[in-house]
Amino acid sequence: MSIFQTNRFVRFLRNYGPIPTNDNLFDEVIQRTLLRERIAPITLPVQFRDEILANLKSADPVSEILTGTAGDGKTYCCRSVWLACGGSETEWNGKSTVKTVSFDGRELIVIKDLSELAAEVSAPLLTRMAECVTSSDATTLFLVAANHGQLLEKLKATPKSAATIAMTQAVEATLVGDAVAPGVRLSLRDMSQAPAADMIGRVIEAMTNHPDWAQCEGCQAAGAGKCPIQENRDRIRGLADGDLLHRRLRALIMLSEQNGVHFPVRQLLMLAANLILGHPDCRDGLMTCADVPELAIKGTFDRASVFRNIFGENLPARRTEKIDLFRKLNAFGIGSEASRRVDNVLVYGADDPALAAAYGELVLNDPIYGGTSSYRRGQQDYLEGADTDARDEFLKMLRVQRQRVFFTLPDDRAEALSLWDLTIFRSGGLFLQVADLLAAKKTLPRNVLPVQVRGLNRIFTGMLLQTHDDLVLATSGSYSQSKTSPLLDEMISVPRKGGQKVELVANDTGGMVLEVRLSRGDDPGPIRLPLTPTRFEFLVRVSDGALPSSFSLECHEDLLAFKAKLLTATERERFLAADGDDETADDELVLQFIELDGEGQAAVRRVTVRL
Amino acid sequence: MSFMEILPRPQYQEDSSTGPQLWIDEQIWGHRLHDEQTPWLTMLEFLGILHAEHRQGRALSEARLNELTYRPQLQLRLRNLLFNNPHMAVVRASGKNDEGMWTQWLDLMSAGAGGLENKDFSYLRDRFETFKDFDAVVSFLQGSSIEGGGNKRWSSKFIFPFGVNSLYEDAKVSASGGVSTDRRFFGRTGEILYLMLCRSKRAADLAARLDNRLLKVEGPYDKLVGALQNTAETTVKERAGSYLPCSQYACFDHLAEDWIAVLDLEIPAYDALPHMVTLLGLHILLYQLARAAEVFPEQRKISLVCEIVSPKRSNVRELSANSYQQNNTLPGEALEAFVRLVADTPEWKSALASEEAGASAVEVLSRKFDWPERDDAEKVKASPDALLAELLKAASKRHKLHVGKFHATWARLIGLSSRRASRRTRYAPTDRLLKTLVICAVDGRMEFKEFLEHLHQRYGMVIGDRQAQDFIARGDADQENFSDNARWLEERLASLGLLERLSDSCAFVKNPFKRRFSRECT
Asked: Rounded to an integer, what is the distance from CA A3 to the centroid of its chain?
C-alpha cells in the first residue's frame, strides 16, 4: 500500500479555486472534466428551475429571461430546464448556442448564452422573441440566459420596432425594479437576487461531503500530523465547533448582501475551494496532495489556516485585490480592526494570570492554527522588546490570530470580548440580531430604536442632541446641504401618538427599514429609510458621538435625502390638515428655533415677526 | 485672427475712456474673468442683474450686443444689520430689560451704521416682540450667509439668495460713509455669465424658469429679509461696460441646457442653486479653455483627464496632473500667441515697411489692442519689434494677475481639482461635483458607460478606457489603468446612492430626483 496518495477530487477542486485560468468554472467544461475523470458532480440546488418549469407548462406560459452576474449559474439552470423539457444531453453538449425542443405542443427556444451570439445572429432572434412576447401567441416560448450588461447591449443592437422597444423597456424596468407595462408576456428572473448566505452552506456541504474524499483514507502524506487539506475540510464541516465558523461566515455574507453586495455561486465555490486548499507556499497559493509531505517536513501546516484563507491571504496581496470575492470579504477589515479585549488575551494572555483562562480557551486549545510554537515564540519575543523585524513579524501573526478569533470565539463569550469590534461593523452582530427579532416579530432590546433616532436627530439638526423620544425634523431655511439646521419643522413622536410613530420593521429580504408615520391615513403614507448595515452602523456611531470619516460621506447624503422626503411629507400633511387653506396670516411669520436645554434635549422657541 | 469671433469694444468704454487700458484678455474672453470672484459670488452678481433687468421686462434679452445697462439693488440697511452689527452680543450681555436693550442697540446703530443717510432702525421695534427675538433672527440669517467664513469687509458679505429681497451689489463703504462700486468681489464675471445666457439658444426658456422658480416666489425667509430691509434700495446710476466677445458659443447653449435640467428637477429652488453654481463654474472654466484653444490654428480639443481618487495610485494621477498643467498654462500661451499674430498681418508688415515705422506700428497696435496711446511720443520713437516685445510683457504681466489664475482657482472651488495625497494639482472631482453632474445629466437612469461618454462629449472629461483611447494608443497608459479609474467612479457613485449595479458588466446611474420635463438635448 502506498502511503502517499493523490486524490483526483482534490486536483479537480483546485480548478474551482482562485487560479489564474479557472476555465473549469464554466458549466460546459465542468461536465467534460467530470466525465473524463469519472468524478461525481458537485450538485447544488438549481435556483428558479421549478418556477420556470411550472410557468412553461402552465396554461398561460410566458417567455423567460434569466439574468444575473457572471457565475450565478445561468447555464446550469438552462440545462436543467432543457433536460426536464425532454431535451437530450447530447444535443445540449453540441456546439450550437441556440437549441429548440418541443413539448406539450409548444416550442421552446433556449439561448444558453446570449453573449456568445454575434449581433447579426442575436438581432433576428431577439426580434422574433419580441414579436412572440408582445403577441398573444403562447406556442413559441423563449428561455434566454444573459448577463445584465450583455442583455442590454444586445437589445440595443436589435433594430427598433414597436415590439423590440416594448420588450427592451420591460426588461429595463424589471431590472431596476420598476413596474412593467402590461401586454409583454415576459418574465425576467435575476439570479443575482438569490440569497448567497443560504447558498454558502450548501456549497460547503456539497464540497466537503463529496464521496471521493474516501480516496484519502489511509493516506499518510502528512506524516505524524494531520493533513492540512483534511484539517481545513473538517473545520468547515463544523463537526467540532458546532458550525460556528460556518455561522460567522454566513453572518459576513448576510451583512454584505444587506449592503447590496452580491456573491454569485461561482464565487462561493471559489471561496469553499480556497478555504480547503489555501496555503501561501504552494503554487497558485493552493495545496495539492503532492505538496503535503514537503509542508510536513518544513513544519508549515499552520500557514494553511482556514481563517486567513477566507480573506485570500494565501495569495499575493496584488492578486487578492483583483479578486472580487476577496475584495468584498476584506471590506470588513477583519485582521486590521482590533478589539482591545481580544488583543489583550492574544498578546498578554500567556503571562497574565487574569487572562489565562481566556488564553487557554482562545489560543492554546487550537494547537494547529492558534497556539502554535511559532506564535508563542513570537509573542515572547514581542513582549521582551524584540527588534523591529521580530515585532513586525509578530504583528503579522497577530493579524492572523484576530481573523481566527473572529471565527472561533464562542457565542457566549462574544459580547464580553466585543467580537464585532474585530470588524469595521461594530454593530454588525446587533444588526443581525435585530433583523432576526424583527422577522420573528419579537420585541427589540430597549436601546436599539432610541440610538438610531438620536443619530438621525444629530444629522438632521447638526447639533449634539440627546433627544430620542421624538424625531426632530429641522431645516436650515436655505439649502439642505448646510451644516446646521436651527429651525424646527416638526417634532415627530417616536411612540405612537396621534397617528405619528417611528419604528423599525422587517423588509422582505431579511433586512429592515426605519418607518416614519405622520398620520393614520395613507396620505402622506409612511416614509421609509432602508437601514443597511452601513447606515445602521453610521447612526450608532453618530449617536455615540464618534464618527470615523470612512463612513461619513456615503451615509450623510442618504440621510439628508431622507430628511428631504420627510419635509415634503410634513408639508403635505399640514396642507391636508389645513383643508387646502393656507392658514398662516400674511402679515406675520412664525419661526421655531431649536435650542438645547441643559440635558441636551431639543427645546423650541417661537419667534413671531410682523411683516 | 479672423477665425475667432471678436465683437467690437463697446462704445461706452471708448467714449468715456473708462475700462481697461489694455484690451487683449478681453478680446479673447470678455470683460472679465476674475479669479477673486468665486462661482457663488458670480451667481449673486448674475441674480442681481437678472432681477434688475427683469423689473425692466427684459430678463435675459439683449437689445443690442454688449450694451447691457442695469441698476441693481443696494440693500445697505440689511447689510448693516447682518454684517456691520457687532453690537448684539454687547447688548445681550448688558442685562438690561427689553426696552433698555432696544434703546442701547438703536443708539449704537445710529452711530456705527455705514453708507446710510438715515440711520434710524426703529422700524424694527414694531416687527419683533422682543429684542431677543430680533437677536435670534439676526443670528439665524447670519448663519445662512454665502461664504461668510472669510474676513471680507462687511459690505462685501452676502446672504443666501432667499429671493429678490436678498439680492444686492457688492460695494465699498468708506469710513465717511461714501458708497462706491470698486468691483472688488463682483468683478463682472456675473456680467459675463449673464451675457452668455442671453446669447444661448434657450435664453427664453431659461428666463421663464428663473422667473418662476427664483424671482416670483415670495418665500417666508425672503419676506423676513424684506422686513429687515424695510424698503428696497436701488443704485442711482446705471451699471454699464459689460462685454463678451462672441455672439454665440456652444458652451453658452450647454450651460443654459444644464441649468434648465436642474431647474426642472422637483427639488426646492434653494437646493437647485448650489448645483447651478457648480455648473456655471464648470462651463465658464471650459469657456476659458475653449476660447484659448481657438487662438491656435490646430484647434486643440479640450480634455480634462480626471483621476477618481482611490486607495491605490496609478498613472492616471500622473496623466491628470499633466492634463491640468497643460490646461492651466493654455490661456497664458493663448494670450501671447494672440498678440504675436499681429506680426503676420499685412497692416503690421506695411507698417514696418513704412517710413515712419514707429508711428505706424503704434497706430496698428493701438487699433488692435488699445495700446499704446496714439500720442505717446516715447512709444512712437521705439522700434516696432521693441514695441511688440513691450506689449507682450505688459499683457502677460496683467494676464497673470487675474485671468491667468482663473482656471486654477475655479477648478478648485467647484471641486474639479485637488492636491489630495499628491504634490501636484490634478483633476480629481469631488463627490459634490459628481453629484451635480449626475442630477444634471441623468433623466431617471442612464447606463454607466453612457454616462462616462456623456461627460466626455459635453465637458471633455476623460475617465474610462473608452474615453482614454488616445492616451492608451500613445502608450501613456494601459487600458487597465483607465478601466480601474472608471470602476472607482462606479464605486463612488454607488456609495453616494447614485448608482445601481446589476452585475460586473452593467450599472445604471440614477438621478434620485424626478424631472418635470425630460432633457431635450444631451
From this structure: 43
